[in-house]
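Re: export button greyed out
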Amino acid sequence: MSLVRVHNFSISLDGYGTGEGQSLDQPFGHATDRLHGWFFRTRAFRRIHGLEGGETGVDDAMANAWGDGIGAEIMGRNKFGPQRGPWQDEDWRGWWGPNPPFHTPVFVLTHHPRPSLEMEGGTTFHFIDATPEKALRQARAAAGGRDVRIGGGPSTVRAFLAADLIDHLHVVVVPIVLGRGESLWAGLEGLDQRFDSEAVSSPSGVTHLTFTRRQD
Amino acid sequence: MSLVRVHNFSISLDGYGTGEGQSLDQPFGHATDRLHGWFFRTRAFRRIHGLEGGETGVDDAMANAWGDGIGAEIMGRNKFGPQRGPWQDEDWRGWWGPNPPFHTPVFVLTHHPRPSLEMEGGTTFHFIDATPEKALRQARAAAGGRDVRIGGGPSTVRAFLAADLIDHLHVVVVPIVLGRGESLWAGLEGLDQRFDSEAVSSPSGVTHLTFTRRQD
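Workaround output, generated via the alternate export path:
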């Protein structure tokens, strides 16, 4: 059975996966680049986005696991773009330019479906109004036996955790206090009891936590 | 100038420093021993409480910094005991038996002062109704030039952080999701900008974060 995985999901010490006030100029709201700075500096991030250079080390090694064996992604509509409610601008094709870094089918969860968008490089965005279970069924069918990545944002990852659909969760604790934003953990009391976990801190100051679903 | 220090302060992934429903039977509420299990297993903890054995390693080394150079402690009333409001039972002398592990003056913050309690081994509990600034002044005077430890619980540490009175903060992130309880971080947005931080994870699964006040 293919696995359902979350990678490189950064949170603050108070558990927020994104800041308040997301907009076109500030995709992460008042968190700006403080949650993901560790990731942007890695060689893995830069290669994913067609850039050279970047740092190596434990942050890079962890970041690099993002793509291996993935056949489809599911993301929330808030990750796809800053619009809320009915689409005002169907010309919006995501943050990532003509050749997005996914290179697989990507299922965007939205209450406002629109026609699929075929991009360069193998990425196709499908817009579906579905429960986590149904979305996962569609993504699995499209993934050709490979794993499915839940790409975020926080409320999407939380919904899949609440539905107990995640097999592998990689969370990165960044030593900042955001104070407000979207919590990853709200409503998930006792979540840890379903997983085995490991922690490794990095010289960059962040700590990588990996949660692997317990086999009963 | 003597420093103001916090040690071995355990929090969950969602930032809670203690659980809900604290009582005589459950001093940490529904968190039971999940927040402090890493500490109870160390040699440092066992020695502090007059016991032999215990584990060594990074958890023990971090735990052991608790007492060095400390001349007084300030704690919240909720750490001293489970009673709330006016004292119904003045026979209560804390959780720690006749010879508490502090061996210094201890200032207990309460809106209901009562006579000081002189215990065996050098610990004296003083009950004072004071702001963080005033309590710190009293504790410094009693500490004879040594450092002052802020002993918790979460609301007490938070009040001293909000007043910018902490020089050294050792927080231990435990990979559990408590869901409810007393948050360490509430109201402290941007706190990290006043400190330099380091992270080290332990094979036990917890991560030690140390925050050292920036020198301007």
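Chain A has one domain: 4-84+99-213. The button fix ships in the next patch.
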